[in-house]
Write a structure and sequence with these properties.
Layout (H helix, E strand, L loop, with lengths): L2 H13 L3 H15 L6 H5 L18 E4 L3 E4 L11 E3 L2 E3 L4 H5 L5 E3 L5 E3 L22 E2 L2 E2 L24
Length: 169
Amino acid sequence: MDDVRFDALVKALGAQRSRRGVLGALAGGALAAVGFGNTAEARRCRSVGNICAANGDCCSGFCGTEGPTRKTCHCAADRDCPGGVCLEEACCLPDPQPVTCENQCGSQTNNCQQSVDCGACCVEPDGACGANGECCSHVCVNGVCLSGKVFNGEACDDDGDCLAGHCET
């Protein structure tokens, strides 16, 4: 423990009157001794969303105006937003992929304006198609996606849609 922290601990102990206050000061001193105490830099650096007066007050280095008189710390880069991204000077927490991709396929944009791959798009059964690969079932017969392979006696074409290979064409 350095001299400054020791002096602060002694002053805190001397100023406390209750047992709870003394225990709090001891705990604070113990945490400071192992490096968990607040430093001057940590006290003056404010995270995104906190009130500020100047850019130097903010960890991001960016104090912006909120309304006519209020100023708060804004983000300047993604590193200023733990677990999120900086979007238009504010931190944005991206929705999970299942939320962004619900009932969607291909490339979609999430709530934080990021591109998300939602998987390949395919045409559901009874939808129009031009080839087997366009259908989720990979079976396109006469321009319509089927739910799977067709059986003998059902309509099919000659590109492998038939289950047994002897369907009607």
